[in-house]
């Protein structure tokens, strides 16, 4: 995916991870236009297929109409795509004693690198073909500055530093919810409205193996829920509001009659 930063339309209130390496649970023959790689995770051999096509700015997170933003046909390089088993099955916990290992630390480094190069604001390990319960997330003032002020306020979006959470456990801390469009690099070029809780708490281990607890609200809470869903084998399309699924180029079109309005409920 190119790293050019482009303005985002008002309707493109999205989040989702950047990603790499499509994991196949059974041996696969080489695909034309693809690079095939194999990796070992906790002693198990995995075969992955990386796609080589190009994508657009924040394809799975904040892409929208115009300015070279992705369409339904755009494919982010190296991303695991919907239908790949790694995206639809629960990921495995990381043994606390393995956190400091070169293997796990290497996975974390690659996740951060992929997320930032996308650029994106969140990533789950299954999206780089690794079925482990690890998420990374980060939102910067620069990313936020490309969204209209009214959208930033509606999303309750604020910058936060890099977070690495291993074996995250998610808990909703209020009954407040909001509906906004989401996208995912594993479902390139499409968006749908998803209802999420506005206040959550996530606990787990940081990359050093120390306990970590994050209390979040607004957009950060949405990112955490989206990434934690990936660890359960759930994509945003599994939770989308019916009849809101659309290509990026149609984000500014009105929602169908009867669909709930965007924003807090």
Automatic annotation (TrEMBL):
<keyword id="KW-0732">Signal</keyword>
<dbReference type="InterPro" id="IPR023635">
    <property type="entry name" value="Peptide_deformylase"/>
</dbReference>
<comment type="similarity">
    <text>Belongs to the polypeptide deformylase family.</text>
</comment>
<dbReference type="GO" id="GO:0046872">
    <property type="term" value="F:metal ion binding"/>
</dbReference>
<dbReference type="InterPro" id="IPR036821">
    <property type="entry name" value="Peptide_deformylase_sf"/>
</dbReference>
<comment type="function">
    <text>Removes the formyl group from the N-terminal Met of newly synthesized proteins.</text>
</comment>
<keyword id="KW-0479">Metal-binding</keyword>
<keyword id="KW-0378">Hydrolase</keyword>
<dbReference type="GO" id="GO:0005739">
    <property type="term" value="C:mitochondrion"/>
</dbReference>
<dbReference type="Pfam" id="PF01327">
    <property type="entry name" value="Pep_deformylase"/>
</dbReference>
<protein>
    <recommendedName>
        <fullName>Peptide deformylase</fullName>
        <ecNumber>3.5.1.88</ecNumber>
    </recommendedName>
</protein>
<keyword id="KW-0809">Transit peptide</keyword>
<feature type="signal peptide">
    <location>
        <begin position="1"/>
        <end position="22"/>
    </location>
</feature>
<keyword id="KW-0934">Plastid</keyword>
<keyword id="KW-0648">Protein biosynthesis</keyword>
<dbReference type="GO" id="GO:0009507">
    <property type="term" value="C:chloroplast"/>
</dbReference>
<dbReference type="GO" id="GO:0042586">
    <property type="term" value="F:peptide deformylase activity"/>
</dbReference>
<keyword id="KW-0150">Chloroplast</keyword>
<dbReference type="GO" id="GO:0006412">
    <property type="term" value="P:translation"/>
</dbReference>
